[in-house]
Amino acid sequence: MTHIDVELASQPPLWRKAAELAAVNLDVLPRPGQRVAVVGCGTSLYMAQTYAALREASGHGETDAFPASEMPARRYDAVVALSRSGTTTEVVDLLTRLRGTVPTTVLTADPDTPVVDVADRALVLDFADERSVVQTRSATCALVLLRAHLGLDVDALIADGEAALADELPTGSVERTQFTFLGTGWTVGLANEAALKLREAALAWAESYPGMEYRHGPISVSDERSVVWTLGTPPRGLADEVRRTGALWVASDRDPLAEVIRVQRLAVALAGRYGVDPDHPRNLARSIILTA
């Protein structure tokens, strides 16, 4: 069994720990009404996108998400950074540059890393750290912590996560070769993350789009080789349009974050089918550290 198999299966109980961590750190994360920027790289960026959309939609205040390398020079009341390793060059550089100008909080899985030294405050999810290069549980735990801080339900999410571990993968999905993930609102970031998991772990052809944007070009690649998987509520009529292309349409009523577990499982299954090591993706390292 690979490390990623163990790590993705451990998520629901660890989500409980993440929610409990949020409950005892209420003053560490942004307050309602603050204007907030959230930053990250790779998977952490997609969790940042998801949290930003959730926070704003929940009425907690204007929230923007950026790659750590692309944050513009705007005024914010607080900045939240996500970095599993705590060593990602772009995140460390940004927090160093912002020091003393705006309050910063970092979520990381390792307490003994540079981001903890350069951020004003840190939330450490060391219980969710991973051995696999491919990030799964540390990212979802960070997002659950942020969701819990917004007052969103966690119990139903955990139950859905357990169901996602037990459910079969969509029939015929492992035999397909092209994958498109769709989101709307706060699930656009999850769609981006879903596609990244298949690219990283299985070297699969995977794309992601806002649901309404799929019709504007991307639908042209869908055919009998394709899976089109929506996370959350899809645009009206889209399912029928996708089925007419010959693609396999996948949708679920469970919490979209829980549904990400099934996508992670598909990534591992595809890696096995293709003879790829999902723990050590080609050309990737656990942390991206840039040299001068």
Automatic annotation (TrEMBL):
Give the PROSITE patterns listed for this entry.
Answer: SIS
List the molecular function annotations (GO) for this entry.
Answer: hydrolase activity
Task: Read off the CDD domains from this record.
Answer: SIS_GlmS_GlmD_1, SIS_GlmS_GlmD_2
Residue span, SIS domain:
26-162
Positions the record marks as coiled coil are none
Keywords from the UniProt entry: Hydrolase, Repeat
**UniProt-listed Enzyme Commission number(s):** 3.5.-.-
Q: Which InterPro entries match?
A: GlmS/AgaS_SIS, GlmS/FrlB_SIS, SIS_dom, SIS_dom_sf
- Which enzyme class, named as a word? hydrolase
Statement: the UniProt record of this protein carries the keyword Hydrolase: yes
Extract the SUPFAM superfamilies matched here: SIS domain
Q: Tell me yes or no: is Transcription among this UniProt entry's keywords.
A: no
Protein's name in the database: SIS domain-containing protein
